[in-house]
Amino acid sequence: MVAVDIIFAPIFLSVLVYYLTKSTPQYTKYIALGWFIVEFFIAFSWYKDLPQVGFLELGNYLNVPQFGFDLTLRVDALSIAMLLLTSALLILVVFTSWEEKNQAAYFSLLIMFSGPIFGVFMTTNVLWFFIFWELTLVPMYFLVGIWGGEKRIYAAIKFFLFTHVFAMFMFVGFFLLFKQTGYWDLTLIKEAALTTPALIWWLMFLGFAAKLPVFPLHTWLPVAHVEAPSSISVLLAGVLLKMGAYGLIRFTVELMPAATKEFAIWMVIIGLTTTLFAGMLAIFERHIKRMVAYSSISHMGLVVVAVSTMTYDGLSAALYEMIGHALVISPLFLIAGWLHHKTHTWYMDEMGGIMKYAPYASAIFILAGMAALGLPGTMGFVGELTIIVSAIKAYGWWIAIIALGSLISAGYIIWAVRRSIHGEASDTVIKSDFSMTIAEKFALAVFAVLIVYFGINPQPIFDLANQAFGFLGGM
Amino acid sequence: MSFIILIAAGLLVPVFYKSNIFIAKLIAVLAFIASAYFVYTNQSLSSVFPLFVTDSATKLIEYVLLATLAAVSLSLTGFERPLIAQMLFIAGLSLAILETDNFFVFIVLFESIAIVSYILVANIRNFYNAEGAVKAFIAGAVASGIILLGFAFFSFTTESFTYSQMSVNGKFTLIAVAIMLAGVFYKLTIVPMHAWAADTYSQVNHAAAAILSGVIKSVMLIAIFKAFYKFMIAYPLATVLIFSFFAIITMTLANFMALWQKRISKILAYSSIAHSGYALIPFAAAASVYSYAGVLYYAIAYIFMQTSVFLILNDLRREGGVKFLEDIKGLGIKAPVHAFLFTVQLFSLAGIPLLAGFMSKAVAFYSGVDAGLWPIVLIAVLNSALAVAYYAWIVKHIYFDKPVNNVKLSITPGSLIGQLILLAGTIYFGIFASGVFNATISM
After folding, report:
1. pTM of the predicted structure, to 2 decimals
2. What was the ipTM of the complex prediction?
């Protein structure tokens, strides 16, 4: 029963937690923290039980026999990777929002969010996948809309509508899958012959692409990221974007490999455009958080290209980059938001010289920035290198232009560091108070350690990838 | 038996109106519970009259209907007391129309419900009430005339009025059914016969609007589906063309109209019209085995959420004078319980998962895909995504905006119990779908 409880319990408990802790909001964060730690250990225990190949069965629930529709919970290495990442990020997000206002509501919504997001990565039933996919929007809508910046309402509604509209294409795609195969379960659908895979493929791709997001469906992301509180930006970048990449791997590659092969070239074109276009946008951006957001989009373009290769190397590179991106982009967002909180400006040219006043945050900003541009020894290097290598293997040397993405990112990261961290301190910076809570320091330190640890020792993630994509054959 | 109890209670209740509304409410709720019990033990009209049959799907919607009406009667105040008796009559007639398998009886009961619904909206207090009530009456009268005309044509061509034995051959039947559908569409508020609905729903007393738009419409959906099922099977091409055409224009137009409204009751009225459009998709997909499940699920989900939102709005208007979108700013602080319930039901209307509104849309739309109508379903899902815009906009006003004044609103115990019944229905049917599918297996 643990498996189904971990999804449904938080959705309903969050309401209870909210009303119980309304008068003593300071306890809500401990409840949230405890719950996320429990989730992490449950995910870890499933990882220990994982069979070498295929899925770990966690049971069937809520069966509707007439419709062939039940909540099938199964995890494989790919889902476990996502679950571990999600719960780890949630734990860190509690630390980074330690002093958020209106705590009872905020942390209850975080608890509510943790249910469906686990559902997305755990179920193999496509309709339930969609149900959880949509459910994650509700807490996010409130988290962005209530705790966000000035234009938070516009951002929240745009985010909600954008992902909802494109998810609807996916929804019809899932119906067509069931219509043609008679199964909702993707492990069963895999064996069935689809008569119109092209239509279904594109319907699904639209849904995942908007979530990733790729050019030209990315417009919700900079707004949402800028307006969301920085801890929520971490969840948006680290978890919600990963849903898109996860869906891409699960559905397009595993479910419809033939159609993916056919449209791979489109994926490459879209991924390349996204990487280069978003990178260029980041270069011209003065707004520090929007720059990080564009950099995030740019990295997602790389993931699309890696997924499109449909080789073992490409997919494991994609998985590595997904985890790497979450760990690299999160401290950048956190520090960008923190800088705004302290200096009351978003613009990098109004900062400068922060190194002198806030050395701890600056050091981690530089480290994460170097990881984002792919400095050897960090996660960014391994991720980008493996993606480029796998893409060249699959498509030939011309795909090496994707390396331009790294070049561009070197441009905007170094320039951003030059403008905000180094240089002359501006008046705003001199007047600001750069104190940081222990909880925030701890969270940033964890990110920094993980970036370096997995950068030097990427093997654990590739082991997971090996287990997840072993069916595609050896290196 | 349940029919007799409900009608008798309806006659008895007015005696207690003036003296003690609590007793009137108690009698009504007991009557609903008793008739639910008799439905459970199969002692309904079908055991006495040959013109009625019950099956598991009918029973399910009857339970839902009785529970909803009990919830409504709990949350009424003295001002709306005449509604209690009218609800009891509507419940009795609805049980009859759901159980009938005779086209003639269907028409008679259809008209009877229409007449009770005119009385329902006739609680006129001011000019606006009068406009809504008169519109409902005139549109209903025209619809009745059209249906009778169609029925007169239809009666030429068939020897039996029993659903399963009706003969539906020849062009004459097609014309007759088309005319009847025009009348029926008035009641289901399908564009272009929807014009009365937006004004009526938004301008009559909101508790009456809850019954009119929530309860009566979903009962009618199932009754009409059963009555016209034979026709829909006999003329698949015409069915697909007619119903998908009207489904598309209804939902698209209503959704766009709802986007521009400033009055909350108008938004909810147009959203109700849009929902009629979605509900026509399983009609168009009558060829699919899931069509009945689609209609049934849609009716069940719709009855809970639509009734609930209008009742909450009724509370808010009575206590806090809430009429326009501006008035509900900061409702999350001013009236947390109302705000929470309203948000959940709005999300259900919008089709957010784990709430009945999502599952009903999923089943209804799937029946469309199953019948091969996926382009229409695609239009419908995009429409329902569009609809999220105005539902999210209301929720935005509730939670994201600062309150204009600091009047705290509290919820009365009766209204809270009623709302919790409706909320339980919305959540139960959002998670456990097997009951509905089991019920339709007999069809």
Report:
1. 0.91
2. 0.89
